[in-house]
Design brief:
single chain, five-stranded antiparallel β-sheet, 27% strand, globular, 63 residues, mainly beta, N-terminal domain of TfIIb, 5 strands, 10% helix
């Protein structure tokens, strides 16, 4: 899944929050996703651009 591995801008990652919970996100470079642990969602990053739409996010398994 990490084929489009252009990394998002570091400063952008610092200011982005989950649109559902408004809590910080964790960047998973291997999966090219921004993870919202509070919401249990993973937002895709395509060509270095975070797709912050709930409809585009996938649910993450509970740990």
């Amino acid at each position: 899944m990490g084929e489009n591995s252009q990394k998002p801008d570091r400063k952008l990652l610092e200011i982005l929050v989950c649109p559902v919970t408004k809590k910080p996100l964790r960047y998973d470079a291997d999966a090219s996703e921004l993870i919202s642990e509070a919401a249990g969602l993973a937002y895709p990053v395509r060509d270095g651009i975070p797709i912050m739409l709930v409809d585009e996010a996938r649910e993450t398994p509970e740990e």
